[in-house]
Amino acid sequence: VMYFSSVFPYVVLLCFLIRGLEIWADVQVWRQAATQVFFALGLGFGSVIAYSSFNPQNNNCHRDAFTVSGVNFMTSILATLVVFAVLGFRAKLLATQCVKRSSLPNLEDNNVDVEKTTLESYDKLYTAVNKLVNVSDFNITTCSLEKELEQ
């Protein structure tokens, strides 16, 4: 039971990470996630102090301290990557739904497939239409990935 309960969370995190990498592969997002990991890491060795009371006198405490710190570090990185992958996928899904929901006037009449419209092409189209007419009159909203990530 102990082996299962200590290894299974890592298996689940790895499954989520692989799925997140398949869905979302933007380097900038992963760089920001790695930066967040380094800010979130603390240097407290409370677990080492708790374990030290049960160790024999001739135990290698330095090795144990580095092992616990290393495992903690890798777990933090793995969990952070998984969380950012899920949040990034959710933001992209919401932004894509916003593009589909915000139909531009006469967009379908001009043989434009709304289902295949990307965020980048929608942003360019929104900017161009906004220069020509006031988009607030047509109930058109801006759909950006950054806006969804900030929420």
UniProtKB/TrEMBL annotation:
| Name of the protein this chain belongs to | Uncharacterized protein
- Membrane topology, record value: Multi-pass membrane protein
**Biological processes, Gene Ontology terms:** amino acid transport; sodium ion transmembrane transport
Any single GO molecular-function term of the entry would be: metal ion binding
An example Gene Ontology CC term for this record: plasma membrane
Species this protein is from: Danionella cerebrum
Q: Where in the cell is it found?
A: Membrane
Q: Does the keyword Transmembrane apply?
A: yes
- State where Na(+) binds: N72
Q: What does the UniProt keyword field contain?
A: Membrane, Metal-binding, Sodium, Transmembrane, Transmembrane helix, Transport
Question: What does the organism's lineage look like at the top?
Answer: Eukaryota, Metazoa, Chordata, Craniata, Vertebrata
PANTHER family registered for this protein in UniProt: SODIUM/CHLORIDE DEPENDENT TRANSPORTER, TRANSPORTER
Q: Which InterPro entries match?
A: Na/ntran_symport (IPR000175), SNS_sf (IPR037272)
List the transmembrane segments.
Answer: 6-25, 37-54, 66-87
